[in-house]
Write a structure and sequence with these properties.
alpha+beta, four-stranded mixed β-sheet, 7 helices, 8 strands, globular
Length: 221
């Protein structure tokens, strides 16, 4: 009987070891369970900084306001420019400049207006009441309105024939017609691309630029 009882009872050391193992295992399981529960309950730092689904939606960017530009009027506007074409009128032995109104349709450019005016002058008068001393073969080679005045280049026919009165008259015709839009403008006159220094066989000296005031002073009709 005693032998059987002793076989059923475990040694005290083994029993204590088993108890300690059970306690340790139970503590480990409990600690692991607590950690898992803590991780589940506590959100991460990233989760805490994230907003609600509505806040996470990107706010729509308002389109930049569009400015409607007014259509540009690039087409030239045709308009009438009042001009004066200057002819010569004789009264006995006297000769004087006489103006005749002319209206030229243009896009507004002074170059176009004055070119048309000089071309009309070179074409000659349309009435016998006035005359011209500009040779009919004279042609306008170029005309340009620049900052320093109106530059006119004529063909060599402009200097052909006639005495001092004829030369003075034709010079006045060109000068006054060219300054019809601006009587105070300066005129630079050239023939075949060279500045006109003398006019005619008598050698009328020209001091350029020419103005209406200088013409009245130096070449009185």
């Amino acid at each position: 009987m005693e032998d059987q009882r002793s076989r059923r009872q475990l040694p005290l050391g083994i029993t204590a070891g088993l108890s300690a193992l059970v306690l340790a295992t139970g503590s480990a399981v409990a600690w692991w369970g607590w950690q898992a529960a803590h991780k589940t309950a506590t959100p991460t730092a990233i989760e805490q900084t994230q907003g609600s689904p509505e806040q996470q939606k990107a706010s729509p960017i308002a389109p930049a306001p569009t400015t409607t530009q007014p259509p540009s009027n690039t087409a030239p506007v045709s308009q009438a420019k009042p001009l004066q074409i200057y002819w010569l009128q004789t009264s006995g032995s006297a000769i004087a400049l006489r103006s005749s109104p002319a209206t030229i349709k243009t896009d507004g450019s002074q170059n176009v207006v004055l070119t048309a005016a000089i071309d009309e002058l070179l074409a000659g008068p349309k009435t016998a009441a006035v005359t011209t001393t500009i040779p009919p073969e004279t042609k306008l080679r170029s005309l340009a309105v620049k900052n320093d005045g109106i530059h006119i280049d004529l063909s060599k026919d402009f200097t052909q024939g006639g005495g001092s009165t004829s030369m003075t008259g034709r010079l006045g015709q060109v000068l006054y017609t060219a300054t019809s839009l601006n009587p105070g403008a300066k005129v630079w006159l050239s023939v075949e691309g060279k500045p006109l220094e003398t006019l005619g066989g008598e050698g009328l000296m020209l001091d350029q630029p020419l103005t209406r005031e200088s013409f009245k002073r130096d070449f009185p009709l």
